[in-house]
Structure formats: C-alpha cells, structure tokens
Amino acid sequence: MDKHVQFMRRALELARLGEGLTRPNPPVGALLVQNGKITSEGFHKKAGGPHAEVNCLKKVPKVGKTATLYISLEPCSTSGRTPPCTELILERGIRRVVVGCLDPNPAHAGRGIRKLRRAGVEVITGVCRKEAEALIAPFAKRMLTGMPYVTLKLGITLDGKIADASGKSQWITGPQARKKVQELRRRADAILVGAGTVRADDPSLLPRPAKGRTPWRVVAGSTIPKTSKLLTDEAAAQTLLMDDSIEMILADLAKRDVMHVLCEGGGEMAGSLIRAGLVDEFAIFMAPSLLGGEGFPMVGKKGWALKSMPHLSFHALEKIGDDVFIQAVPVKE
Ligand code: AOF
Ligand code: ZN
Q1: Which residues are near ligand 1 (CB < 6 Å)?
Q2: Portions of the chain given CATH number 3.40.430.10
Q3: How confident is the model over 127-137, as pLDDT tens digits?
C-alpha cells in the first residue's frame, strides 16, 4: 500500500476518536513521521481546545528536517479560539505536509495550503480525500448550509417493518447490530425520535458506553410521560422537547452547535424527513425475519407512485451477526 495512504488512514483513525466530542468543530487527526516511522500522534478532542496538529507536535521536542506531518484536514490559517496551525507548522520547521481534504470553512478553505506552499513547504493534498470528506461531512453541511447532517437509522425486518401490529419493536435486530447502533450514537451530536417512540419504548437514547459523549436527546412532539427515562435519568438536562416542524427542529439544533443528528424513529418521522429531503445518510439494520401486513412500515404515512419514488444508492453492505447493515445515501434527482 502507498505509504501516504497508510499514514493518512491512521490519521483518519485518530480523527474518529474525536467524533461526537468536537461540536461545532470537525474531528481531525494528525501524526508526524520521521525516518519512515510514526513518532507522534494527536487528535482534536474538544472545541476551544488544541487542534490535532498542536496535540501531535507538543509531544515532539525536536522535528527533523525530513519529517512529514499528516493531517486529515487542511490546517487552519487564522486565529479562531486557538492560534493558526499553519504558524505552528512553520515555527516547528516542518518541510512536508500531507493533507486529507480541504477545510470547507470559508475562513480557511485553501488558504492554509497556499500559506504553507508560499513559505516553501511541500504540501501533498487529497490523500484518502473521499474518506476524509466523509468524516467531516456533518461539519461541512452545518458550516455551508446552517443545517445539521442527518443520519436516519432504521431497524427493520426483511419486509420493511419497524414494529409489530401492537407497536412492539424490542427487539427486531440482534445484539451485534444493537452494539453498532451505540457506535452510531457516539458519533452523533443529537439523537432524535418522535414522541410516539418514547411512549412506546421509553428509550434512554444514550450511547453506552458514552466515552465522554453527551449528545442532545431530542423528542419531536411534546407529549411524553413525566416518568420517561429521558426526563428522569442522569442525562435529563440533555433532553429537549421540541414541538415544531422537522425543518425548524433541525435548524434550531444547528444553532446549538449540532452538526450530526441521528434519527432513530419511528416510521412517521422517517417519512417526514425523507419527504422533506432532509436525510443525508441511511443506516439500515435489516433482520432476517418477517412481520407481515399489520406491522408498522419503516416509512410511515403517505407513499409515492412508482414514477416519483425516492431512490437510494447503497454505499456499504455488511453482515452483522444475523442481520445486514446497509449504509445508503439518497440519490438526488
Ligand atoms: C485544524 N485542526 O484540529 C481543527 C481545525 O475556533 P478554533 O480556533 O478551534 O478554530 C475552529 C476552526 O478550525 C474550525 O471551524 C475548522 O475550520 C478548523 N478546525 N483545524 O487545523 C483541527 N479542529
Ligand atoms: Zn488549527
């Protein structure tokens, strides 16, 4: 494997350690390679805190002339809450930088790279660009549109049902799939459900283990029992009841620094999000079981005619325990 790709994959792995912790900043990873070996690593852990480059370079007393810095994102070039990383790179005498993708933040976009090149630093861009862009897609969406990135998670039977005729849904998918849902929750800044789901399932919506994550727990619709876990457990201060249109709820969350919303149901909420074109990514867990005609459909309320039905594109398929995980994105017509 190309050595740049190999080191950038590690930088992306480091960046992922910060996913779900950095709002409204992007997760970023950095590492320094000297004489073919990684000598230091770092990632961005919290907005307002040191950037990935700072966390990486603070551990290195002296940087050799042949050192290469790998960063999953273009380094910042102006002072925000922290000083510009381009200055640090120049101060530390780094002569070669490899970057995953450009920073969509208009304050930086391309500037950081130009600044380094003008100062004579060799900058290689676009290594693992697709993966690097996918990782910061929620940051980019909020930065550029003022709306959060929405992942719609659905646990379904093979015939597309999310609950039996009596509304019971625990459990359709197996334990391994549910473990992966915890991973999805750790990557999100807010977990969104409809009030009906809270009344039916009384979910906690907390990532377990939380690993430092404190996502907002958002209920669309205000009528949930006072005894619900969302209103009584240790994270009750993180619960928001929002009785508004789905667009207004998402716009409000973006104002609260939320970049990535994980929507966990039910079918009517899925339908509203899809009909409003607000889903960026589908995370579907499909169990090898059937519920038949009276079960609740994964997309509730009004459907489409064949000629106008929404199309998805499958990005990844994975067998998880007895279930299948499908990562899909909407196809923009
Ligand atoms: C980097 N490395 O690890 C991150 C970057 O307010 P500040 O100073 O923290 O700046 C935030 C902006 O910096 C953020 O909007 C994004 O453009 C960039 N994030 N840049 O070089 C990092 N997290
Ligand atoms: Zn920076």
Answers
A1: 25-26, 28, 44, 47, 51-53, 73, 75-76, 80-82, 85, 103, 105, 108
A2: 147-330
A3: 999 999 999 99
